Amino acid sequence: MAQKSSGTPIGKIVGASLIGTTIEWYDFFLYGSAAALVFNTLFFPESDPLTGTLLAFLTYAIGFVARPLGALVFGHFGDRLGRKKLLVLSLLLMGAATFLIGCLPTYASVGALAPLMLTALRLVQGFALGGEWGGAVLIVSEHGDARRRGFGPPGRRPGRRAATCWPPRSLALLAAVQSDEAFQSWGWRVPFLLSGVLVLIGLWIRLSIAESPVFQQAAAAQPERASLPIVEVFRHHWRDVIVAIGARFAENVSYYVITAFVLVYATEQAKLDKGFVLNAVLIGSVVHFASIPAWGALSDRLGRRPVYLLGAAGVGVWAFAFFPLIDTGNFAAITLAVTVGLVLHGAMYGPQAAFFSELFGTRMRYSGVSVGAQLASIVAGGLAPLIAVALLQAYGSALPVMLYVAGGAVLTLIAVYAARETRGRDLVTLADAPDVAERVRP
Fold first, then answer.
1. Average pLDDT in the 86-107 region?
2. How many Cα atoms are found within 13 Å in the side-chain-facing hemisphere of 298?
3. Which pick of 41, 324, 347, 365 has the fewest CB atoms within 10 Å?
4. How far is CA 143 from CA 138, 139, 153, 319, 429, in A?
5. Is residue 341's pLDDT more than 90?
């Protein structure tokens, strides 16, 4: 069945996904960087440094708890009303929450009310991002060419990668040019407040694009809509949901250990300067940014599974080299540790948008992609820095953290190996209730 043109140039579709997702992931990762560096003293000052960091990462994890709820709500209405409306709403919610974090009073001003307000805004961030992820995947995948789908959804992937670069870059710059007192007092607020300007730009672009043509064709062919798409997902696609959860495990764990927990480990355990480590993360993130489309393109040629399996095995093995390299205190070694880890992570993240989009039928695709991805994010994403800090605090060694990352890699290897190859599937004709036998690799 031929896919109709939306009338909107694909470059504009990619730009809309890119700008909106860049802003939302910028907001989300900015919180993670700030939690590792300043929130422990600003919002939990009565605890020792490592316990304060643990509490700061607990509020970080709460954002992940809200993401499955966002996935359910946004997925439901995205499958019934369309992708575009929900993407605009997710951007508004995320931008407002992030801007307000930059305005929050600290513990010194209002006491225990400060961490409570921080937690509430973090919940809003997580709820919004739970809906953004699936919608941004689909708005590009459902406009694109099946032959280049792995490479073709760059609107979301580089958006996340660009967003990953900005928080450490902005915080590193402010930390370098300000005194510690100024940075703790107001400097950390600047990146949060700037997100308000970025949101206005993102809204202007997203409001100008057309709805997904795949969704429009499905709605025209089958006007009767499922009252609860999520019920249909678990009825017909429960195996695919399990595959998505398992596939996300190593991808999430490795990423948050490499980019968030490393800031804690390097400053608290290795006694390195925070700006020193932020710069290493920045360099690794730039290389990561460039590698993502290449891995996606490779999955268009070789298939989603082999590229994904390579990434999962790679991060599991690299974990045992990562921390010894950090312990050297050498900038080149630390940069190598972060960069190689992120490039291997990219082998999972590159094919992921296409892989997950190709698992589900159109009328339940937003729900399936969102819920499958976000259920994993609670344990594999939100708790990863928290678990890593707790393991470091309990054992005083990085070895348990290495084993934790390797264990996540094993789970992902099992899940992806059990999945059938999806490369080249037609999103228009992909049935909502597929033959289960076609879903699992013999």
1. 86
2. 17
3. 324
4. 8, 7, 9, 37, 14
5. yes
Cα(93)–Cα(90) distance, integer angstroms: 5
Q: DSSP assignment of 309-329, as one string?
A: HHHHHHHHHHHHHHHHHHHT-
Q: Quote the tokens at residue 302.
A: 């070789």
From the list 26, 56, 29, 44, the residue with the least C-alpha distance to 264 is 56
Cβ neighbours of residue 91 under 8 Å, at least 6 residues apart? Answer: 20, 23, 24, 128, 132, 199, 202, 203, 206
Q: Are 59 and 122 in contact (CB under 8 A)?
A: yes
The owner of tokens 């990085």 is 398
pLDDT digits (tens, 9 = 90+) for 118-158: 888 888 988 988 887 777 777 777 766 666 676 654 434 44
DSSP code at position 144:
S
Helix (H, G, I), strand (E, B) or coil at 42: helix
Q: Who contacts 200 (Cβ-Cβ below 8 Å, separation ≥6)?
A: none
User: Rounded to whole angstroms, how far apart are CA atoms 276 and 158?
Assistant: 25
Collapsed DSSP state (helix, strand, coil) of residue 330: coil
Report which DSSP code applies to 178: S
CA-based R_g, the chain, Å = 21
The label of the residue with tokens 């007092």 reads: 185
Place of tokens 């590159």: 350
CA pair distance 99, 202, nearest whole angstrom: 15
Q: How many angstroms from the chain centroid is the CA of residue 153?
A: 15
Count Cβ atoms below 10 Å from residue 189 Cβ, excluding itself.
Answer: 17
Of residues 31 and 359, more confidently modeled = 359
- CB-based burial of residue 221 (10 Å sphere; 0-12 exposed, 13-18 middle, 19+ buried)? exposed
At 316, list the tokens.
Answer: 């599991």
Rounded CA separation 221/58 (Å): 46
Rounded CA separation 40/56 (Å) = 6
Give the residue from 352, 377, 355 showing the smallest Cα distance to 130: 377
Q: Which residues does residue 440 pair with via DSSP β-bridges, in sequence order?
A: 419
**DSSP character at residue 211:** P
Q: How many residues does the chain have?
A: 442
d(CA 52, CA 181): 18
- Centre a 10 Å sphere on the Cβ of residue 422 and count the other Cβ atoms it contains: 22
Give residue for tokens 């490479």.
151
Burial of 12 (0-12, 13-18, 19+ CB in 10 A): middle
Rounded Cα gap, residues 367 and 225, in angstroms: 13
State the average pLDDT over residues 359-369: 82
Phi, psi at 46, each rounded to 5°: -85, 0
